[in-house]
Write a structure and sequence with these properties.
The chain is of the alpha+beta class. Helix content is about 40%, strand content about 15%. It has a six-stranded mixed β-sheet with strand order 2-1-6-3-4-5. A six-stranded mixed β-sheet has the order 8-7-12-9-10-11. The chain starts with 6 loop residues before the first strand and ends with a helix.
Length: about 625
């Protein structure tokens, strides 16, 4: 029985050549899989300034070393250079494709795709091998593409990815799941890669790991997070955000939404045709709500009622589900798409562009979403003819063309999720320092800070964000189900990794200078799994993504607080204090051992075993930031 994944499959679409190669053991030890291995390959193989939609960009479909064995829904990671941000991108999705990919890769941890095909193609993965085949599915939406392969798992791009919309998704399972944020679908479309088809069934689970999985799945079902997910999945987040005062509504002009009861978890439960299933033995917790619409079944996640509902002033759950279905089939990230429409509405109100769509206008929003995916103005909507094409490249691209820069906030050109940090400054820090742009999943202070005691210190907020970013870097390198991993992997997966004798724990959990040093540690006997060592692994991975972004020109200026959040909301919610935020950012850099420009120092790189990885093109700060003055002022 295979116990470890030690290889990758390479596909060059320009030549249609496929090869297999071994992943260096020290890479697996120091970066584990998923996010970490993807970051290592990206940093190693991409030159600074690589065009994200050019043939040199790498698009990786990666799993973790325990893919198909862990409790919860199996997931995969799409890792690439983002066409939206120009920086590092990792995005995740679960479902049937993910678990079939885990089986089809056999002893491989991922599929690395480079080059550009001269005509549309698909890649079929089976038995640890890949084949490039022509396809006539170009032009199909995500559901239509999946229907062509009823006996396989399919990840594909829809029309938005074919036209390289900068926040196009990689849609799997007919659009039920998406590697959503940052535009991995645009990279895939630019390569003329319509689909990846995983032919094999899920991997068989060894008896000892099956028992462990059953134990942890049962534990998760009894935990508060498991109970919460069983009750409402992520749809419930719109109710929560409104209740604690952090729900951004109507294009960030309001905090809170009067129609939240009509688009929240109770509305979803009333309209649901059932719950999304998971494979027997994966988890006792059901998935998302399945909603019947006139165009087919939709599984909306929490981002749909937040961004397409409250964010667009739409208080009809059926219409929100329909808009979600439009995005799912076209292959558009709902947060990016909803934010683009919200910007267009506000810009139209301000006279920046011609756009007759207004908040609460679901029909107008649908027309505009379809126009964005097509990059063409709709015949049935009188908008500026250049608007859809600009919006397809993101809010910042539309601002650069038309103006209106203080309307809808972005970080590193990625639109913010609808949790408003004006009521929780720790959320602003998490957004600003996220490695892939504004993201509510790298760290989640929105779940604690609004309910925390009012005297909670800046040091506490920084400690939370840094700790969660490090921990999730490990969990996303395992590519474990987000919620299950957080609930049952308190040791960051050390026990699971030890069970397969993975080098991340088998080699004492730390980076060595060369492979010859590994033998002494092995001869002394395998140490107990170390969560502390894995926390350092998470810090190493997070720092490597920072180094990648630094090489692309990112620094402190890109961690800035977006202009809309510095000002008061229309309902009177005060803006984030800029000086206080800068002190918070100083504390964050100090906690990470970075300097005033927000760049790692040589000492930090050395401590994390990255000194031999960093190349001459990557800028570093000379010394760590001195946060003592800010600390004295705050404490």
């Amino acid at each position: 029985m295979r116990r470890n994944r030690t290889r990758v499959i390479r596909v060059d679409l320009s030549t249609r050549e496929t090869t297999s190669e071994r992943v260096p053991r020290d890479w697996r030890r120091d970066f584990v899989g998923g996010k970490g291995i993807g970051a290592r390959y990206l940093y190693e193989e991409l030159s600074p300034g690589t065009d994200p939609t050019g043939p040199e960009n790498l698009l990786a479909f990666l799993v973790g070393p325990l893919a198909g064995f862990l409790p919860g829904e199996t997931r995969y990671a799409a890792v690439t250079k983002s066409p939206l941000t120009g920086g590092f991108l990792d995005s995740y999705a679960g479902g049937d494709f993910a678990v079939r990919l885990a089986g089809s890769l056999d002893d491989c941890i991922g599929l690395l795709v480079t080059g550009t095909a001269d005509r549309p193609v698909r890649i079929e993965v089976e038995g640890g091998r890949a084949r490039v085949k022509p396809t006539d599915a170009w032009g199909d939406d995500a559901a239509e593409t999946a229907e062509r392969f009823p006996d396989a798992g399919v990840a594909c791009v829809g029309p938005a990815g074919e036209r390289e919309a900068a926040y196009a998704t990689i849609a799997s399972d007919g659009g039920d799941h998406h590697a959503g944020r940052g535009g991995a679908g645009a990279v895939m479309g630019a390569k003329r890669l319509k689909a990846v088809v995983a032919r094999d069934p899920p991997p068989a689970v060894p008896d000892d790991l099956a028992a462990r999985r059953d134990r942890d799945a049962e534990t998760y079902g009894r935990r508060p997070t498991g109970e919460w997910q069983a009750a409402g999945e992520t749809i419930e987040t719109v109710d929560y955000a409104d209740e604690v005062g952090i729900l951004a509504a109507e294009g960030w002009t309001e905090t809170g939404f009067d129609g939240v009861d009509d688009i929240g978890v109770e509305a979803a439960a009333e309209r649901a045709a059932g719950r999304e299933g998971v494979r027997e033995g994966d988890s006792a917790v059901p998935g998302g709500f399945r909603i019947d619409t006139s165009d087919g079944e939709v599984v909306p996640r929490g981002a749909a009622p937040i961004t397409l509902g409250a964010g667009l002033g739409i208080d009809d759950f059926d219409r929100v589900a329909e808009l979600c279905g439009v995005c799912d089939r076209l292959g558009l990230d709902v947060i990016g798409a909803g934010s683009a429409v919200a910007w267009a509405i506000r810009a139209g109100r301000a006279g920046v562009v011609d756009c007759p769509v207004d908040f609460g206008d679901a029909a107008g929003a649908e027309h505009l979403l379809k126009a964005i995916a097509a990059r063409d103005p709709p015949a049935d909507l009188d908008v500026d003819p250049d608007l859809p094409d600009a919006l397809a490249d993101g809010v910042d691209a539309a601002v650069a063309q038309f103006g209106g820069d203080a309307l809808v906030p972005t970080v590193k050109s990625m639109a913010l999720p609808g949790f408003d940090p004006r009521a929780a400054v720790g959320v602003a820090l998490a957004y600003a320092t996220s490695d892939r742009g504004a993201c509510h999943r790298r760290a989640r202070p929105q779940e604690r800070e609004p309910l925390a005691r009012p005297d909670r210190s800046l040091a506490d907020r920084v400690r939370d964000v840094v700790g969660e970013q490090n921990a999730r870097s490990v969990l996303w390198s395992l590519v474990v189900d987000d919620f299950v991993g957080e609930a049952v992997c308190a040791d960051l997966g050390a026990e699971w990794l030890a069970a397969i004798e993975h080098p991340a724990v088998d080699d004492c959990g730390g980076p060595h200078r060369d492979e010859s040093e590994r033998g002494d540690a092995r001869d002394a006997g395998r140490p107990d799994p170390s969560p502390a060592a894995l926390a350092t692994t998470g810090e190493r991975i997070w720092t490597l993504t920072r180094l990648f972004n630094a090489r692309e020109g990112f620094d402190r200026a890109d961690d800035a607080l977006p202009e809309p959040l510095r000002t008061d909301a229309a309902d009177g919610t005060p803006g984030v204090d800029v000086d206080a935020f800068d002190r918070l950012l100083d504390r964050y850099y100090a906690a990470r051992g970075w300097g005033e420009r927000g760049l790692p120092t040589p000492e930090t790189a050395e401590r994390l075993g990255l000194a031999r990885v960093v190349d001459d093109a990557t800028p570093l700060d000379d010394s760590p930031i001195d946060s003592a003055p800010a600390a004295d002022a705050d404490d």
